[in-house]
Amino acid sequence: MLTFLSRRLLASLLVLLAASYVVYILSANAGDPLDDLRTTTAKNKEELIQQRIALLHLDVPAPLRYFIWLGGVLKVFIGQFDLGKSRSGQNVTDMLASAVGVTVQLLITATLLAIIFGILIGITTALRQYSGYDYTVTTLSFLFFSLPSFFVAVILKQYVGIGFNNFLQAPGFPWWVILLAALIAGAVWQGILGGNARRRLITAAIAGGATAVVMTYVSLTVWFSNPSLGIAMLAVLGVGVAFLVTTLTSGLANRKSLYTGLTVVAIGLAVYYPFNLISDYLTIWSVIGLAVLTVAVGLLVGYLWGGTDRGVSARTGALTAFLVGFLIVVDRLMRSWNNYATSDIINGRPIGTVGSGTPNLSDVTTNFWIESVDSFTHLLLPTMSLVLISLAAYSRYSRASLLDVLNQDYIRTARAKGLNERTVIMRHAFRNALIPITTIVAFDFGGLVGGAIITEIIFAWSGMGKLFNDALRLVDVNPLMGFFLVTGSVAVLFNLLADLSYTALDPRIRVTV
Amino acid sequence: MTIPLSPQPPLNEGEGDADRDTLSDDTILKDPVGEKSENSIELKEIEGLSQGRIVIRRFFRHRGALISMIVLVAVIVVAFTSEGIDALGIKIPGWWKYNYDFIGSVVNGGHPTLSVVPEWLGGQGIRWGDHPFGQDEIGHDTFAQVMRGTQSSLMIVFVVGIVSTFIGVVVGAVSGFFRGAIDTILMRITDVFIIIPLLVLTAVLGRTYSHSGPFVLAIVLGLASWTGLARLVRGDVLGLREREFVDAARVAGASARRIMFVHILPNSIGVVIVNATLLMSATILTEAAIGFLGFGVKAPDVSLGKLIYDFETAFTVRPWLFWWPGVLIVIIALTINFIGDGLRDAFDPRQKRALNRAARLAKAEARAKARVAAATS
């Protein structure tokens, strides 16, 4: 294993080295880095040109200049990592540090959401293969797959961003919107749940009716101006979550598991008011700490309820606890919404289309919840546009993967043993279908730091994408190489991780040394 | 495919594995509906047809691919006839009255004159008008520009497809056929190019070569995007070279080149065609993306990506300047994707699609017959 690792790592490093040389030569020849100075009308033109030549070593031809750059990179072994300076004299390492932070902040939610929803959609379509639902989703995913990212981003900015802000001026739905939404909800749910005509009709009626009721309620109470869930709504949602999680993990027949879920919901409701009392004093770290605590409590409750299989109950408890905790946090965020949206600095148009946060917000408030809402409103549109596009690929991939697994002999064996459909799907099929998806996920996380060049530019986030675009526009080789070095090494690392996870998850695959 | 579970008594947990084994053996032995009878219908359908015919027939059965094919051909025909051809010194005028660089006076703020809502529905009637897609702020006709942009985008797509398919096939075939040192060297070179993100590589190349015109840009982009195909072809060739017919050819004294290009490659044509198609649909998006960044086709030429780059800021004032090129990019990418999907199904019968209705009925009938036969015997 160690030999495999070191060989792979060494080979990857050599490839990375060669690729960096290619990128260096290509980008150094991409244009004239003195372009702006040659046409300048400044009096000290010659002096400026000489200054830049000295700063960027432009007197050395590019194939050799690369080695000056490489020398700076190799200084990492003596603790002086140096990626050179940009045209304006900034240290590239500093530029990269801030850009990576922004990009990861932008992309991590989008990637996670795309993975979760992509797998969900892929699995439901695979289970309802060749149904109307499957065909609709397939066509839609082809459409999203073919959408250029800037097209989606600009349209979202115009219609969702500005449109939603306008909607908030008078947040209510006209009757035909409610009707349409109810019809769509009914159609979607009957497609997912399937069954015979009678069952489909009942599903559609329930889903459509529920949608209509919720929307009418939201519309009549002007919920969007001052949203919150409230303890009653949390109780309903929590019990729903408990039942859903139990159904998926152990089946409702396992009473101990169900009781675990319900107990966790009760605990969640009990800590609701205390949590809201202390919430103003929380920071991001204490919230993460509370999340860990919540999961631990869930595990403990499951362990105490025990039952035939303590592990299953504990898992139900942990999952339910996490989801209920999440709902409570969402409720707290919603309570900050009104303060945020009506504050002077936001002025009733909360959805941001520019940048990663409202400038000068920290002058007004340093409340964690308000700041979170601010990040949320700025993340919403870029995240949506990224999710829409990568969702298609994930859903196609997990659909194909699950279909592949469902045709295996061991699934037939599992069914022949008389296992119920839930166990076959969740325990035998789903887990194995996740193995190839893991590889894709690892690859995508590897590509994450590269940023979404186009999305970042449209929404004016100054992350890695913008750094690359600016560097290329100005033929500024050092930042461009910094960009490539970071993305390239992370990609190499995650490729290796993908291989390792594959061998770890699938015992049929062995590393060959 | 989910097999509907018929209600059956649950297995007694206490019973051992031996019992389960006999049970599954039994079901297989007694299964009256073997794979044989299902396959025979499909075999009958393609009896006596050549491989090419079978592929074409399967492709035309894929409705999405067929419609996409028609739409794409229509787009190509309209784009090239309306603006005519003006490349490589050949000049053929098109049927549309404005040229893409013609500057007229701005009529009605440049609003599109195209209307598809009939008068009795409160619209302006179905009409084409003088500037169906509208005009920009200095009076260019958007229809002419979009058609010209479509031409150069399509040209780029096809040139990239041809160039990268050629390089990818040659590199992959040589690498997979000779293995050993040649394989290692070629695959390490491929790795070097794969590790550079495609958008980064194409943007850098576009920054350098876009001044030399769209054709040069297309060739350069083709030189950058062959890597995925090379890997796939290599994998396919590695498998094919171990087959008996390759041994037979070698014994008969065929040269390495002949074995590679006459015996092996025709067998991996499916992989090549399908992936070349998908590569082309990715290329239209890549071209649009680097055009949007400003590293694509340069003035005076236009491409769909460049039009969007020029008019992004005009979206709130003149949305049609943005909509039309965007919609055409989506149409082209979507149709090529669907065609690629259809081709994949046609070349790879393991990925069976739902049969059409007639075939489904025939299958059910055969299944019933087999069941009766099994019962009576």
Structure description:
- The complex is a heterodimer of chains A (513) and B (377).
- The radius of gyration of chain A is 27 Å and the shape is globular.
- Among the domains of chain A are: 2-96 and 463-505, no CATH class; 172-221, no CATH class; 229-348, no CATH class.
- Chain A is built from 21 helices and no strands.
- With 513 residues, chain A is mainly alpha-helical.
- Chain B folds into 2 domains: 57-102 and 144-347, MetI-like fold; 110-139, no CATH class.
- Chain B contains 15 helices and 2 strands.
- Chain B has helices at 17-30, 35-45, 51-61, 63-83, 142-178, 180-195, 198-209, 214-224, 227-240, 244-251, 256-264, 269-293, 304-311, 319-347, 357-376; strands at 85-87, 90-92.
- In chain B, strand 1 and strand 2 (90-92) form a beta hairpin.
- Chain B is globular and about 75 Å long.
- Mean pLDDT of chain B is 77; it is low at 1-35.
- Classes of the chains: A mainly alpha (513), B mainly alpha (377).
- At the A-B interface, helix 1, helix 6, helix 7, helix 17 and helix 19 of A face helix 1, helix 6, helix 7, helix 12 and helix 14 of B.
Walk me through the topology.
The complex is a heterodimer of chains A (513) and B (377).
Chain A: H1 2-28, H2 35-38, H3 45-56, H4 62-74, H5 92-127, H6 132-145, H7 149-169, H8 175-193, H9 197-220, H10 230-249, H11 255-270, H12 272-278, H13 284-305, H14 310-341, H15 361-364, H16 368-406, H17 409-416, H18 421-448, H19 453-458, H20 464-473, H21 477-505
Helix pairs in contact in A: 1-21, 5-6, 5-16, 5-18, 5-20, 5-21, 6-16, 7-16, 8-9, 10-11, 10-14, 11-13, 11-14, 13-14, 14-16, 16-18, 17-18, 18-21, 20-21
Chain B: H1 17-30, H2 35-45, H3 51-61, H4 63-83, E1 85-87, E2 90-92, H5 142-178, H6 180-195, H7 198-209, H8 214-224, H9 227-240, H10 244-251, H11 256-264, H12 269-293, H13 304-311, H14 319-347, H15 357-376
Antiparallel strand pairs in B: 1-2
Helix pairs in contact in B: 3-14, 4-5, 4-14, 5-6, 5-8, 5-9, 5-12, 5-13, 5-14, 6-9, 7-8, 7-12, 9-12, 10-11, 12-13, 12-14, 13-14
